[in-house]
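User: I'm curious whether this sequence folds into something compact or stays loose and floppy. Could you predict its structure so I can see for myself?
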Amino acid sequence: MSEDTRDWNELAEGAGPRTEADPNEPEDVARMSFEQALAELETIVQELERGQLDLEAAIQAYERGTRLKEHCSRKLKEAQLRVERISLGEDGVARAGPMDLT
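Assistant: Here's the prediction. I'll summarize afterward.
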């Protein structure tokens, strides 16, 4: 990770609008970054696709995967709400405004 990227990530933490967290979300999942949750979700999908888990383990993995997917969706929504649409006014001046989410 470059120094610029690291600085940007440090500044971005905690900034911007937040979507409402799921009160039932396990604490370990709630603390995960998008990238961490996605990596674990990919691992779970691979394990389930191999079909080598017993039924109970497969159900638990599926439930964990569902929580991770919901967490990733919330993180993406937060990112989307932070993105600004940049446009040029008639006077040629660039302006930033909220992204049109419709």
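Summary: The longest strand covers residues 84-88. The beta strands are 84-88, 94-98.
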